[in-house]
Amino acid sequence: MKTRIIVLAACVAAVIALSFAGVMNAEALQAGCTRSTPTTSLPYVEDVNPTKSNVYVALVTCCGKSTNLVLKVRDTKTKRAVKAKRVGKRAWEVRMKRGHVYRISVKAKGGTWKRIAYGVM
Questions:
Q1: CA distance 76 to 64
Q2: Cα separation of 97 and 121, whole Å?
Q3: Burial of 108 (0-12, 13-18, 19+ CB in 10 A)
Q4: What is the pTM of this model?
Q5: pLDDT, position 64
Q6: Rounded distance, CA 1 to CA 107, Å?
Q7: Would you give the DSSP letter of residue 17?
Q8: DSSP conformational letter for 41
């Protein structure tokens, strides 16, 4: 019984910590968007919605002065490129599978690649 309570408390603490991290990342992203820098920010996964049992659609955004951005997504498990559908000047929809980790890279024209890894577990 005690182990169940400890596990439950650890899960609640993890959820609270992740929610604060998401709020802080969103605030940092908005602060980065107000600057007029010619480069782009790191890509940021704003929202993930399930479509099928193991398939999710993630909304990936990044900000910066340039609207001429290139986004590349690669599945690290299968080593294949994943299509990203552009839905705005700085936003894309990416289909992801559960249990896979994706490398999301963005580059502004004349800039350098900026990468993050994102997994749906």
A1: 27
A2: 9
A3: buried
A4: 0.69
A5: 77
A6: 51
A7: H
A8: -
Beta bridge partners of 116: 104
CB neighbour burial string for 26-56, b if at least 16 within 10 angstroms, e if fewer: eeebeebbeeeeeebbbbbbeeeeeeeeeeb
| Ranges of each domain in the chain | 1-34, 36-119
Closest Cα partner for 101 from 84, 79, 85, 83?
A: 79
- What amino acid occupies position 72? K
Residue, of 113 and 8, whose pLDDT is higher: 113
Q: What is the pLDDT of residues 78-92, one digit of tens each?
A: 999 999 999 988 899
- Which residue's entry shows tokens 């609640």? 12
Domain 36-119: CATH architecture, name and number where available: Sandwich (2.60)
Cα separation, 52 vs 63, whole angstroms = 30
